[in-house]
Structure formats: C-alpha cells, structure tokens
Input
Amino acid sequence: MKNAVVAFLLVTMLSQGCHSSLTSSTAPENGQTGSIGAAECLEDSSCENAYRETLAHLQTPLHGHRRVQAASCEPINQAGSESASGFACVCALEGGGSLHIGPAGAPCTVQSRDGYSCLLNPASFAGCSPGDPTTCEAACAGLERLLGQDAARTFDVGIRAAACVKQSCQVVYRVGNDCFANVFPGEAYNCELSDGAILAAATAARDARNRPTLATSLSPPRFHPRPSDEWQGMLVDLDAQPPCEESGDCGLARACLNERCGPCTRDEQCAPGELCALDHCVRQDLATCRTRRDCAAGILCILSGYSADPRANEQMRAYCLNPEGGASMVM
Output
C-alpha cells in the first residue's frame, strides 16, 4: 500500500476579530468531550487563537508544492462509505508518501488546500495498464500541475462565531461563499443561515452519521488509556486504526505500529523531526513537553489540537498550561 492514509481532520480557522453569539463556558478540568471534530479548549480565547494560527496559511500561496517523482499503475482498494477497487495511477511524491488517481468510481482522493474542493475527480479516470511503465506518467504529471496551481491559490476565509462550550470549541467558519461548523473538511451550509442554525444542522448530521447500531451500542468506545494525573483531552480512539506503512502515512498525528496507525509511546515511533507527546507525534520545534513531568508542579502538558494537513500535526503544539487560569507556561 503506497497511498498515504489521509484522515478526516480536525482544524482551526482564521479569525479577524472573532465575535461570538454562542453561550460559552470555561471549565477547570479538561477531559474527552466526545464531540466529533471539535477542538478541545479551556476558554473562548484558546479557540480563537488556535483557529487564527492554523488557517492563516490559506490566505497566502504556498512557497512550494508536492512534486511527483514516480508513477505506476497498481491495484487499489478504496475503503469507506463509497468503496471502489481496481487499478489506479499511484503518484509517488518527493519526500515520501503518494497520491492516487482512481480507481474509477472512487470518491475524491486528491483534495484542494481548502479541504473540501476536489482537485481531480476519479470519475474522469480512464484506467491504466499495469504492464506499461509509462501508462500513468501523463496522469501524474497532470496531477502535479494541479497541485502547483492549488499551491498558488489564496482563499477568503473567516470566523463567524467561536466559543468554548463544555470544553469543546464550537465554531462557525467560512471558506469562500460556503459556511461550515467545527470539522474540516465538513459539510457546506448556506451562509445566509444563522450561526445557531448551522451548528444545529451540523450536530444533527453528525449524530445521524454516528448513530450507533445495536452491535456498537453494546460496546463503549475504546480509548488508549493515559495516566489519570495527565491531561485527558484528545485520547486516541483504538477502534479507528487505519493501515499504514510508515508513520508519515498516518493522520491525526499517530504512529505506524504493526502496519496500523495508533498512539505512540516513544519518540522513535514517530516520523523524522517528531517526538511523542501525550500519545501523539508532535514536531520537535513545537513541543515543550511530553508529559506533565516536563512542566512545573500543578501544571499540565496539553496539545493545541489538530491542524489542516494530512499528518494533522503541522501546527500542533505540546505545551505546559495552568488548568486553573489557562495561562501558557514557557518552560
């Protein structure tokens, strides 16, 4: 399996003077909220600051873009709600990882930087010949051009509302003329709707997608345990462990262990340049703690939340925070 596993990611969005019409709450204790796709928080300002920090890159072009170094025709089994299988063009990228075009009938596998636009519709994929080494060269060259065009784009984004409600960021954000709530990529809503109506619709859609069947309702979710004196946010769901070849393939800042994406326990399990903090692989330059042992007495080591990139940790921070006052502690 050479295609990188791209998880649905959680993100934070840019705000230019965020104003909130939501009822907020700041709690002294932080735990697993169970809110799918919503960033964990302690106070309103943490939602606003994190969202502003993460999505700023969409307002400016990227200095570089992903480039293809090899192309091949290989069998692909596309799992998910829109499953498809067959031969597809696998475009190996410089620096590791790959993107695939096809198989025919598969959902979009190459998305724009905005998180919801499809760069290349697999429905137009004409197929490839596994015995021909040149069969995918043109398709992958075309994909590289699209990646370059997408890298040069800028996006008009903004926050309509943001608040920390029961330790979960409740956010209504806009990308272009479409509005979204909490998750990214997510379902687009008419921006003429009120913030409350968009959040209500997003919650209803989420609940419908995750309504338990009889089988799943008998078993509670399995989270990777963390010592009780540590921060209990962003626990890793052990029931969702997609396949992988290396840690760089995994989304949600996970490590590749026994060909499955899961929680890290040691630095060397993460990708180069990363360390293991609170079961997540975090960039070394963005981490000031691994556990609360790296912080002062009474201070917790926490994670800032997932970011909008395939690995979901490009801007994730691990830092010490006072759970009482919400003040970040530089160690």
About this structure: Confidence is low (pLDDT under 50) at residues 1-37, 326-331. Residues 104 and 125 are 6 Å apart (CA to CA). Helices lie at 44-55, 137-152, 195-209, 214-217. The two ends are 41 Å apart (CA to CA).
